[in-house]
Design goal:
The complex is a heterodimer of chains A (412) and B (182). Chain A is mostly helical and 412 residues long. Chain A contains 14 helices and no strands. Chain B is mainly α. Among the domains of chain B are: 81 residues, Four Helix Bundle (Hemerythrin (Met), subunit A) (Up-down Bundle); 38 residues. The termini of chain B are far apart. Classes of the chains: A mainly alpha (412), B mainly alpha (182). Chains A and B meet through helix 6 and helix 7 of A and helix 2 and helix 3 of B.
Amino acid sequence: MWAVIAVVDDAVAKGFGNLVGELLGHPWAVLAFKIFISTVPILVLFPALMGLTTWVERKVLARIQNRIGPNRVGPFGLLQFVADGIKMLTKEDIVPRAADRVIHLIAPIVIVIPPFLVLSLLPFGKNMVASAPESGVLLFFSMSAVGTLAIFMAGWASRNKYSVLGAMRAVAQMISYELPLVLSAVPVLIVAGTLSMPEIVASQSGGLFNVSHWNIFTPWGVAGFLIFFVASLAEVNRSPFDLPEAESELVAGHLTEYSGFKYALFFLAEYLSAFAISGLGATLFLGGWNAPIVFGIQLLPGFVWFFVKMYSLILLMIWVRGTFPRLRVDQLMNFAWKFLIPLALLNIPVTVLYALVFEIVVRKVNAAVWVQSLTGRAAGWVIAGGVLIVCYHLLAHLTFGRKIKPRKYRYA
Amino acid sequence: MPDLPTLLFLSIFFPTIAAAGYAVSSRNLVHSVLFLVITFIGVAMSFILLQAEFAATVQILIYVGAVSVLVLFAIMLTRHITGILTRTFVEKWWAGIGIALLTFLFLGMAVFDDTRFSVLPYVTDFVGNNRKTIEPIGIALMTDYALPFETLGVLLTVALVGAIVLTRRMDEKETKTKGESK
């Protein structure tokens, strides 16, 4: 079986485009096939995965809340998302009379474009990337920033106070949390020395069990990953940062005046950006498509590992949604500006410190290569990790001041 | 029959100019901003056409992602203009057009007088080879242009601190007046 997988991986590595190009012959046919093979999987696979994920999310949430969840349509309720999709498609499309009709129509279309573009930048496996520009990570952040605009368009065009309030909240939140998100990625870029995503993944391969070079296994990587994950939750408006659509305060935020297929598009965009940002997290910190434990060849092809990592982050998001209550607006802003951003900024010099300590120890110690790197790593962990922990406690003390005591409820 | 680069350029050029025209003439301020966003995207696309990948990315990140949202915020904060149409022409509109034309003229002279424009390597052979553009920019910013770069950073920090100070002072005033009224 391993041999077969090795052959498949190799074929992917050589690029299906070239392989088929040899078969087809004509350069235009090759180009057409390359376009087909790099766009269609993204356009088909991720919406399908989104449908499945809605089911998974409802099931997992139900389990957390001691319910059963959807179980009527299909085995284990698996076809629930198909029924929901058909319901969405056949619903009446309502446009408020006072709404700005054109923008109301364009907003759900605009909002699905950035996630698809951003997904095309992610390296799913060895050579499995639709487009790998030099400025990959930067382009990812700039594309996802366009989503903010679409949410504003939706809220404003609806001419509904709840919609506008929700949109304003969403824009403020997404702009605030974009800073820690980008800043938490900076250490990775410094260490890898590139903005290109395939090169970042390549920089994390090798080492002990093909795992030890992953960025998560460094003190700055742990801190960066945690900041990245929290900021990404806010960036895709997921719980506990789902204030823009807080149903107890704002009906449904910018989605209030949307129904039918337009609403479905917003839903799709939300899940797609969750996939994309989880994929970016896996690429930056979890080694991308690098497989843990390699015996000469990988046990499973790279894209399987990528999807496993990406989907674990999605499951983590669902778990968080089932566990934490929603933040208040002032808590949200304080948390971003007074805690996450300073911590992410501090993480950058700590990264440099770690790299320096690692280098110095590796040069000083007169031993076998892996012992050298191990002692370098340990020294780096102690020093850089110590600095990070001190910074964390200092920031927490400065920001939140008093110790958080168990809360006494008067009416409960 | 023009070649492919020219066709691509023209297909970006006309929508961009049209969107810029609408951005200036639209009587609904939010529509103006959205047309402005289309113009920004068009400019980013022409940057890509010139193989200035970094400039294109930053154009989208800063102008589409941040500046346009800032403008929208400013519009929403100033007054309730949803549905209210504004004037687009002031009495001395010809002065504005004159200044714009002069600026364009000087910029154009700076670009076209110089023979460098015609021999820009990115312009002459923009299809094909995958040239690295970001690394040289980064190295230049950290070596030759380190001082201007750092100065800009300080300037932006000052602006940020200034904004916080301004809002804070207003806050204190409000609380003071509230205290007095009590």
